[in-house]
Amino acid sequence: MASTLRLYLTCIRNTLEAAMCLQVSLLLRFFWHQQNNHVFCSVLLCFSSSLCFQNFPCQEVERHNKPEVELKTSPELLLNPVLICRNEAEKCLIETSINSLRISLKVKQADELENILTKKFLRFLSMRAEAFQVLRRKPVQV
User: Fold this and answer.
1) Residue 133: left (phi > 0), alpha (psi -120 to 50), or beta?
2) Cα separation, 76 vs 58, whole angstroms
3) How many domains does the chain have?
4) Residue 142 falls within a domain, yes or no?
5) Are 27 and 33 in contact (CB under 8 A)?
6) Which of 74-78, 86-90, 128-132 has the lowest mean pLDDT?
7) Listed residue (85, 114, 87) closest to 1, CA to CA
8) Residue 85, φ and ψ in degrees, nearest 5
9) d(CA 20, CA 112)
10) Which residue range is the domain that position 12 belongs to?
């Protein structure tokens, strides 16, 4: 159980590193041979396709560049959100717009060991929040 969560957290961490312009193809080849590879590959493929955004200024206010995935001012600039579920307790929601990306993770916390691993993973993300350019740190209702 804990090794599965560790593998899942490693997948998400590696995927976020892939979002920071590391080699996605090496990660795909690595996770292709892991168990439950369809979940990992679908997360990685969604990330790689979602990272095709560009600089797009606001249509309402001149010289403003705000993330459309947060504001949702123009529905034509939003792509369909992708929800990848491993089970009810483990989900990954990927919301993409023309100029931004929002990733929401739900991690299973069934016992004390998984709680510790989740806290370590959150600490890993919070220490690197500036590198990931995290704009919102509140949970999204899925």
Assistant:
1) left
2) 13
3) 1
4) no
5) no
6) 128-132
7) 114
8) -115, 125
9) 31
10) 2-54+62-132
Quick check: 92 and 126 in contact, CB under 8 A?
no
Inside any domain, residue 138: no
**Paired tokens of 61:** 């206010």
Higher pLDDT, 75 or 27: 75
Would 68 be classed as within a structural domain? yes
3-state DSSP assignment of residue 62? coil
Give which of 105, 100, 85 is closest to 13, Cα–Cα.
105
62-71, 78-87, 88-97, range with the lowest pLDDT: 62-71
Distances, alpha carbon 65 to alpha carbons 69, 74, 135, in Å: 12, 13, 13
pLDDT-wise least confident of 44-48, 60-64, 95-99, 116-120: 44-48
DSSP 8-class letter at 75: G
Q: Which amino acid is at 35?
A: Q
Question: At residue 139, does pLDDT exceed 80?
Answer: no
Q: What is the mean pLDDT of the chain?
A: 73
pLDDT band at 112 (very low <50, low <70, confident <90, very high): very high
